[in-house]
Write a structure and sequence with these properties.
alpha+beta; Arc Repressor Mutant, subunit A; Gyrase A, domain 2; 2 domains; two-stranded antiparallel sheet
Length: about 210
């Protein structure tokens, strides 16, 4: 799985002597996700959904094309078979996401949750995920492990949703977590898109930095 996230990182890398880029691997992930869900996408849609300028989107598409990840058609831009294979593998680890209301474990006005399958081994305190979210411009991120039917905080095994039965039930229903899965909640006060990108960025970073050795 690490190599697929590495592909996203390579696509978002700078080619000398190009200037510093305004997108990173989470924007690549989101762009591919939009193509998977819609079949074809336009530049205008990518600008809106990724909250990036037209020039940045043009560069992003150029990098995707250089890596044989997209092709252009009359209907718009779509994924190649190579991109479809890579993205399907990524979705096997990040299969489900949803938003949740403000609560005691998600303090932003906008809160977005991603499920990361079988990665509890990679979580220490959750600080790494929080810092990744902050770099995306969000308030931060909350990371929890799913153990014995409960969402618990890393290291402490404290049942963090004991006072949030509605949120607990919502996440069980929407995400259908299994033992040793984790959830990452990106939070922001100004934008749901920022909260979403923060959660996804933290999930990708977790995979990137903690490849599971069999």
């Amino acid at each position: 799985m690490h190599q697929y996230v590495k592909t996203l990182e390579n696509i978002s890398g700078r080619y000398a002597p190009s200037r510093v880029l305004s997108f990173d691997m989470v924007h690549v992930f989101k762009a591919l996700q939009l193509m998977k869900n819609r079949g074809h996408v336009s530049r205008d849609l990518l600008c809106h959904e990724l909250d990036l300028g037209e020039g940045t989107i043009k560069t992003l598409l150029k990098h995707l094309k250089m890596h044989d990840m997209i092709r252009s058609t009359n209907a718009g831009t779509k994924m190649t078979s190579k991109a479809t294979t890579i993205f399907s593998e990524l979705l096997s680890n990040i299969p489900i996401e949803t938003n949740i209301p403000k609560c005691s474990i998600a303090l932003g006005e906008f809160n977005y949750v991603v499920l990361l399958k079988q990665f509890s081994f990679a979580i220490k305190s959750g600080i790494e995920q929080r810092d990744s979210a902050i770099k995306m411009g969000a308030l931060g991120a909350t990371t929890m492990l799913f153990k014995e039917g409960k969402f618990v905080m890393p290291d402490s095994n404290y049942e963090s949703m004991k006072k949030e039965p509605f949120i607990h039930s919502l996440l069980i229903e929407k995400l259908k977590p299994e033992e040793n899965d984790i959830i990452i909640i990106g939070s922001d006060d100004l934008s749901e898109k920022t909260a979403e990108l923060a959660a996804k960025s933290a999930a990708l970073l977790t995979i990137m930095n903690h490849e599971k050795h069999m």
